[in-house]
Amino acid sequence: MISTFRETIISLRDPKYPEVIVKKTIPQSIWYWLKYLLFFTLIPLIFLTFSLTYYTPQLPRIIQEHFPEFSLTVSQGQASVVPNEPYKFATPESIFIIDTTTGSAQSLADYTSGFVISRDRLYVKSPDGNLSDLPLSELGDFSYNREELSAWISRRLFAVWLAALAGLLFFAFVAVLSYTLFNFALIFLWSVILALLGRISHRSLSFAACLKVSVHAAVLPLVISAVTFLGSSALITLLNIALFVFYSLSWSKSLTRPAK
After folding, report:
1. Do 35 and 176 meet the contact criterion of CB atoms below 8 Å apart?
2. Per-domain residue ranges for the chain?
3. CA distances for 147 relative to 82, 85, 99, 155, angstroms
4. CB under 8 Å to 94, separation ≥6 — which residues?
5. One digit per residue, pLDDT tens: the chain, 260 residues?
6. Where is the chain membrane-spanning (predicted)?
7. Running DSSP on this structure, what letter comes out for residue 127?
């Protein structure tokens, strides 16, 4: 990555860098952009993996110290709680409720998402606002208490760690794939616009050259987005768009000449 960082710095200062871009193949240009994406994906992924490895063995203790002490039993489609009182676990946008007396879908009205276990039903509200319910009889008989959960996890620490890691990797894969497809759709569209602008202004620049210039111009916005991820705002988004348009236009302009 050192040579890649050095190339990026040079690209911002060297007026002849557009000539370097057009000499690359399209796969080379795409790989130049992808290296940054993979680099900024691996850094948090490694950190989260170490955190997962550190905290997984502590889960039984965390459950014992922070989970409420109650017992939930579902038998023949009927839920019972000991002691018999409502339990709520809420965040500003989501909530989980166990209330076998007055629990209903109405309890989710003020939240974006959540779950409610009532006497005989499970109500689920998804982040998109859809509300569904399921008879507890379809879940079968089960019981839960803090000691059982802590003991169950203690016996399966490696499986819990492996499942969490698999979920983390799957989420990272989906996020990277979605981000890549979305950005390359925009890059392709902008390349078409650059090529059309070249034709209108009677300047000779191929679509392949426009595509490579656009891919390289998208690197700096990617770096800024990654560095300012926690403080992202509309201003950062506008800055990234401005930088992308500026470099793609200036580089393509320096490569073109009036057609004879």
Report:
1. no
2. 2-52+160-255, 77-140
3. 14, 19, 21, 12
4. 111, 112, 113, 114
5. 777 767 777 766 767 777 777 788 888 888 988 888 888 888 888 888 988 898 888 888 888 877 777 777 888 778 887 776 777 777 777 888 888 777 777 888 888 888 888 888 888 888 777 788 888 888 777 777 778 778 888 888 899 899 999 988 998 898 889 888 988 898 888 888 878 877 777 666 778 888 888 888 888 878 877 777 644 556 556 666 776 676 666 666 666 554 44
6. 33-55, 157-175, 181-198, 205-224, 230-250
7. T
Strand, helix or coil for residue 126: coil
Alpha-carbon gap, residue 164 to 59, rounded angstroms:
12
The phi and psi torsions of 105 (rounded to 5 degrees) equal: -65, -25
Q: Please tell me the pTM assigned to this model.
A: 0.62
Query: What is the amino acid identity at position 135?
Result: P
Tokens 């499986």 belong to residue: 159
Q: Which two tokens stand for residue 13?
A: 């200062």
* Token digits of residue 64: 């014992």
Q: What letter would DSSP give residue 258?
A: B
Question: Token digits for 57?
Answer: 């063995």
Amino acid at site 173: F
Closest CA to 99 of 116, 114, 113, 82: 116
Rg of the chain on CA atoms, in Å: 27
